[in-house]
Structures are given as C-alpha cells and as structure tokens.
Amino acid sequence: MDPRLLDIVSAVIAFLVFLVLVILLPAVLEPAIAYMTAIVIFICTLSGTGYFINKAIT
C-alpha cells in the first residue's frame, strides 16, 4: 500500500480516537486530567503508527 495513504489513514483513525477520548474521558476523570490524557494518548498513537509505517516501508 502507498505510504502516503497509510499515513493519512492512520492520522484519521488517531483523530477519531482522540475525539472519542475527549468526549468520554471527562465523564470518568476530572476534565483537566481527562484532556491531558487524551492528548498524550493521541500523540502516542500517532508516534506508534508512524514508527510502524516507517518500519514497513524500509
């Protein structure tokens, strides 16, 4: 599969995960902690997918 397409798909999926976390986590945790957790998970998701896409390309 084209690396650019993989990158776009992974970014869209990571963004959808981020939106779900931003909506659901404040109901479980305090809002400030929930938003920071959502951002950290979003960054980790993008970093992980980028790592695996780079590993698959090379």
Amino- and carboxy-terminal Cα gap: 13 Å
Secondary-structure content class: mainly alpha
Number of domains: 1
What Rg do the Cα atoms give?
A: 13 Å
- The number of helical segments is 2
Q: Helical percent range?
A: over 70%
Report the sheet-strand fraction: under 5%
Low-confidence regions: none
Which structural traits does this protein have?
58 residues; mainly alpha; elongated
Kindly describe this structure:
The chain has 58 residues and is mostly helical. It has one domain. It has helices at residues 3-28, 31-57. Helix 1 (3-28) runs antiparallel to helix 2 (31-57). It is elongated, with a radius of gyration of 13 Å. The model has no long low-confidence stretch (mean pLDDT 93).
Quick structural overview:
The protein is 91% helix and 0% strand. The protein has two helices and no strands.
Helix and strand layout, with pairings?
Layout: H1 3-28, H2 31-57
Helix pairs in contact: 1-2
